[in-house]
Amino acid sequence: MVTYRPEGLDDAFTPTDGDVTGAAGGPTRPGGPDPDLPALGLRGWLRWAWRQLTSMRVALLLLMLLAVAAVPGTLFPQRPQDPAGVVEYLEEHATAGPRLDRLGFFDVYASVWFSAIYLLLFVSLVGCILPRTRVHLAALRGRPPRTPRRLTRFPARGGVTVPDAPQAVVERAAAVLRRGSSWLPFVPSYRVDVHDEGGGTWSVAAERGYLRETGNLVFHLALVGLLVSVATGQMLHYRGQAIVVQGTGFANVEGAYDTFERGTAFDPADLEPFTLRLDEFESRFDPQTLQSRDFTAHVTLTEPGGEPQERTIKVNHPLTAGGAKVYLQGNGYAPRVTVHDGAGELAFGGAVPFLPEDEVYTSRGVIKVPDVSAGQDQVGLVGYLLPTAEEWVPGWWRSTDPQPTDPLLVLSVWRGNLGLDTGVPQNVYRLDESRMEKVTDEAGDDLTLYLRPGETVELPDGLGTVTFEDLPRFVALDLRHDPALLGVLVFALLAFAGLAASLFAPRRRLWLRASPAPEGTGGDAAAAGTVVDAAGLARGDDIGLQPELDRVLDEVLGRTPAAHDRPDGGRPGRDHEAPTAAHGPGGD
Amino acid sequence: MDQVGLAQVSDLLVWGATTAFTIALVAWTVEMSRVAEAAQRVRGTRQRELVAAGGAPSTGAPVAAEAPAAADAPAGRARAEGIARSTTFLGLVLLLAGVVTRGLAAGRWPTANMYEFAIVGVLVAVAVLAVVQRRRTIAFLAVLVMGIAVLGLALALLVFHVQADEVQPALDSYWLVLHVGVAIMATGVFTVAFATSVLQVLRDGRATGRSHLERPWRSADGLRRWLHPLRVTGPRFAWLEQVPDARRLEALSFRLNAIAFVLWTFTLIGGAIWAEHAWGRYWGWDPKEVGTFVAWVVYAAYLHARTTRGWSGRRAAYFVYVGYAVVIANFTVINLFVDGKHSYSGL
Ligand code: HEM
């Protein structure tokens, strides 16, 4: 059967007997390059390597390699997503760990080998697409190929004998083909040529579906655009996290972030210095399952030179400010605590974020009190906040609800040196206990403080007092600026549109030849009229080809669609089918 | 009816659909074996006729005895096929009702957790099967898809089931409909395409007389002998001669895969857009994202394989197997055993 070959990869439309789509597979031949070896020499080898790289076979190999290479990223913890997991893995696998680390297994998507695969793939893609684009641009100006001499070997066929003159039939056919489909009447669907073949024989050649190849090229080129946009974004982006407590503000400068990360081409001086203030935070939970249902942060946004504006930030609804998007990534409670030292001086006062650990917001935190009067021990308070506390076993408290209906702070007390002036940066959520000791009560047991809002307790040994003032909320905000976002979106959508066009837009060629019936077949020549022969060829499997050919024939002959007299009754592909008794009702 | 009652009705409907599909599975299997028997009988009759024509007079009687049985076959087949078709249809209706009531009970689009994903995915797969079967019955395809459907529903009801409920804030978005809904549709279509590719390779093996179980495996001879009855060239697979030829199955599989691939591409892009809204980045190599990407790349490789000479046909079908395995692993393994941002399954 005749097949339609990919353009630019092969001699398009060359009728051959090898059936590429057949299950048995066509004759094996290397994908792109021709088999004769290049003349030796650097240039020859380079050209040979280039041809290999841009062959379909190598593209296939690289695609499979890419799929395989992406897998380890889910099997091993990855540094950008889960740095703690990497540390843990390295501790547990003392020998294999460092080796895997050297090979990049903990940052697969930035590793040399992963990058090499996709870069090669894209080089291959460009090398493959550019020549095809050239061929296609030429084809766009081209004419449909002339009607082949024999129309019998094509997958779609039709034929009939009519009384009209050949030229009239062919011109009617050309008109039908030029008109296009009934629901897109203004888009000419076929490019049509009419030929006078001499001897009273006329033929029409028509081709449609340049969109298919256009879509394919757009798709591949859009992938390149996508890669470039993503890389641009990597260079120009910044991203930072900040925790903002209710009633306080945040200014968009690098120093205000808890963590800040930027691309090499972004200058932190370009940060637009807007400010945000968290006015209120609302949360809603399912009363039965206690799962979260809604979070809303009410903020006041002040852009440089602008008036303060009230805004909200919700999950799925980031706020746009100063060219960045502000996301609500987390929330919790920040108990406001005041500590007076043994001398009665104010040693600490402020809201301390406690990080929620479960769905009832059992939250863990550390209060460090370094600024005590001279000669006194520094104090560290470690423990939990329970938004709705319940004593379920004497001495054991737990939270039963994420909302703060009956908050309780449960803290143990440490004294000594907090180690804040050692020069080593410290985690604010962790107490370095190496130079501290636990404070005990009179009985010698570890001291535990239980504090409700408004309560003050006195610490033993003249360490001072602790007051739980009130319980504001905090939000964890994520700010991100990526100027390439629009490019990424546009190229992704272009790729999608191109893909859909390249897979679904039919590419078809139709030919119709009308010639005077040979004398003598039907007795008298006038009644024999004109023999019309038609054939169709499509790129890929196209179930619509034969129906389209039938439709065109019907319209040309002014018939109702029911009566077809195809010479072989053959629908595409049917020719392989053995008539048997055991088909289902649809087949019988 | 209150929401809890409605949720219970939904569960009952899904159980009902599972039952109907189980019956359909049995009926399709019977239908398949009948087709196989009929095929053998036709062949047997033909052989005997040849023998008779060769002049052995004693074979006349068996041929006569066989004839009524052969004539019976269509009626019996029609019965099995009728049951299979009607139970498939019944199951489809029950499942659709189950999905709708589930959505009503939860007060939202029913694609928020693994349970809902599984039941909607099965709904799509069986619906696609029904469309493919409309023109022409391919019992084997139905057996495979029904098998996957029953397995999927049983898993959903027994393992994945969670109470119908509202969703957490991150899922409260119209993307739940678009991204997840389209992902499910893609999975459903991939399922039927996968079954078609399995059939294609079996059919091809039968047609070309190639079976891996007949090759001389020196080391695993015992195993080979044990598996020998299952070889594709053996009598158990005689029914394969009744299914459309491998080329047409390949074309069908491609058409379905192409549709599913476009849907999958949409899932990928939609997921990235949603991630940009919800998580503050469009791509972060989350395990689910990786799985989706790997599946996409494998199916892209499949499309390239189809147009590479020497890789089309049977070999291209292997890409479909790998791709489908990744799609299914992305749904099961990643959700159940890997921690990531997609851990919304509620299990
Ligand atoms: C990033 C790597 C690539 C991806 C993700 C990709 C993806 C795709 C997809 C999804 C299709 C299906 C569209 C269709 O069938 O019309 C396709 C088609 C195609 N690709 Fe690629 N491709 C890549 C690289 C390449 C390379 C390197 C080449 C050249 C060697 C290539 C050549 C082709 C050709 C010729 C087709 C059309 C096949 C046909 O005739 O139907 N692609 N590609």
- What is the radius of gyration of chain B? 23 Å
How would a textbook summarize the main sheet of chain B?
none
Number of strands of chain A: 26
Number of strands of chain B: 0
Compute the gyration radius of chain A: what is it? 38 Å
- Could you name the ranges of chain B where pLDDT drops below 50 across 5 or more consecutive residues? 50-73
Q: Which structural class do the helices and strands of chain A define? A: alpha+beta
Question: What amount of the residues of chain A lies in strands?
Answer: 25-35%
Largest interface: A-B, 76 and 84 residues
pLDDT below 50 for ≥5 consecutive residues: which ranges of chain A?
1-35, 562-588
Beginning-to-end CA distance, first to last residue of chain A: 26 Å
List each distinct ligand once: protoporphyrin IX containing FE
User: How many helices of chain B does DSSP assign?
Assistant: 10
Specify the helix fraction band of chain B: over 70%
Proportion of helical residues of chain A: 25-40%
Order of helices and strands of chain B: HHHHHHHHHH
Assembly status: heterodimer
Largest sheet of chain A: 6 strands, antiparallel
Count of discrete structural domains of chain A: 4
Percent of residues in β-strands of chain B:
under 5%
Structure, explained:
The complex is a heterodimer of chains A (588) and B (347). Chain A is an alpha+beta fold and 588 residues long. Helix content of chain A is 27%, strand content 29%. Chain A is built from eleven helices and 26 strands. Chain A has helices at 42-53, 56-70, 72-75, 83-92, 96-102, 112-141, 166-179, 210-236, 485-504, 525-528, 545-557, and strands spanning 156-162, 191-198, 201-208, 238-245, 249-251, 259-262, 275-285, 292-302, 309-314, 319-321, 324-333, 336-341, 346-351, 355-356, 363-369, 378-386, 389-393, 396-399, 408-416, 436-438, 448-451, 456-459, 464-470, 473-481, 508-516, 530-538. In chain A, strands 14, 15, 16, 19, 20 and 21 form a six-stranded antiparallel sheet that branches. In chain A, helix 4 (83-92) packs across helix 5. Chain A is elongated, with a radius of gyration of 38 Å. Mean pLDDT of chain A is 81; it is low at 1-35 and 562-588. With 347 residues, chain B is an all-alpha fold. In chain B, 75% of the residues lie in helices and 0% in strands. Chain B has ten helices and no strands. In chain B, helix 4 crosses helix 5 (175-208) and helix 8 (287-306) runs antiparallel to helix 9. The structure holds protoporphyrin IX containing FE. Protoporphyrin IX containing FE (HEM) sits between chains A (6, 9, 54, 56, 59, 121, 124-125, 128, 216, 220, 223, 499, 502-503) and B (300, 303-304, 307).
